[in-house]
Amino acid sequence: MADTYDVTIIGAGPGGYVSAIRAAQLGLKVAIVEKRPTLGGTCLNVGCIPSKALLHSSHLYEEATEGMADHGVVASGVKLDLKAMMAHKDGVVGDTIKGVDFLMKKNKIDRLLGTGSIAGAGSVTITDDQGKSDTISTKNIVIATGSDVAPLPGVEIDEKMIISSTGALALTKVPKKMIVIGAGVIGLELGSVWRRLGAEVEVVEFLDVCLPGSDAEVSKIAQRSLKKQGMTFKMKSKVTGASTTKTAVTLTVEPRDGGDAEEMKADCVLVAIGRIPYTDGLGLEAAGVAMDKGFIKVDSGFKTNVDGIYAIGDVIGGMMLAHKAEDEGVMLAEMLAGQSGHINYDAIPGIVYTSPEVATVGKTEEQLKEAGIAYNTGKFSFTANARARAMSATDGFVKILADAETDEVLGVHIVGAAAGDLIQECVVAMEFGGSAEDIARTCHGHPGLSEVVKEAALDVADRAIHS
Q: Which of 56, 444, 446, 466 is catalytic?
């Protein structure tokens, strides 16, 4: 046995590395096990961070080629240097990873390179890429291995022509046509990147709405905006097979509700139907860890049925979001150090970084109706906001749902410019049990996009000023 640790975390994504830092801050001796040579997990390496870099870069390109003329900025000879754009993306990823490396050293966390597995109660085996293994002793084990791309039967990902989100972040040329399978967050964000850079993008979705699970009105407006930008949608359709040649991918697509199959062709297909928990090789069955539909079962304190083994993040289900995993990691670290922890799952925002952005927190109208909860709605459009008009960003609205009796904010749904930033004051309000009146009576700077939030809060009581 090597050194004995208070906590050993398997997986160095946002949930794992943040949990490690908090545990170390609280005086615990911490090890973190990661099979990638770089820290940060999917999010930093092939997910959130590189995709946002490309979203911003592609937005700048589209603004230069199409969006600035109305503002009196006439650009000529604009061309795409995809290699440079990808280099910028890689630089952002590299700098962010270096930051995490620094934090591990700063907090005296032992970083162990290799694949971690549970060897038994209080022990973790780390196997390197040469097959050499070492076992360490630890009081507590935290599983934070995240999630993987959900496979689609009949469509084999080769990361060349049929790609996952990982491949979509590393294309060396702009496809003439890209078919995106799945109208969720990943599909719409990455589809937006390549459409802006010149690809014809068509989205195939099994359901009849984009962004499944979102407020229905938000989904409708988001899809309408993306259509206006040139993205096309084939809804209520299922992909049942795929074949490739040297130059094209042919998909077999059937109507979801019955009908004749048809073929669709593209030179690139992105499979983005969701993600599944990553638990391969962890030794969970041998350790006796209980599972539920592929997810690790935990109690309210993230403890599995086996003493000393815990799990956080995507592997336990719920919202598959980096910030949710981070908060779970912090809460668990604090509890392991003898403190109390806190997380409010009703106040976790979800953000889609398309243009316009989509942000949501709390309950949707559909969920409130299903639960029989009486509520009032306040809504305000970006069209009526002076700052939005100045930015030529008038698509969308803010919708606030408040309890009909107490006025407590139950949900907020935004589609529009900077939605991911605007949602945050509503998250804070909900965390403190705030009301729509609280938001409405808070002074908001003028002229600013945040005034749309205030007006929506005023509208809950039918007293919006500018509509």
A: 446
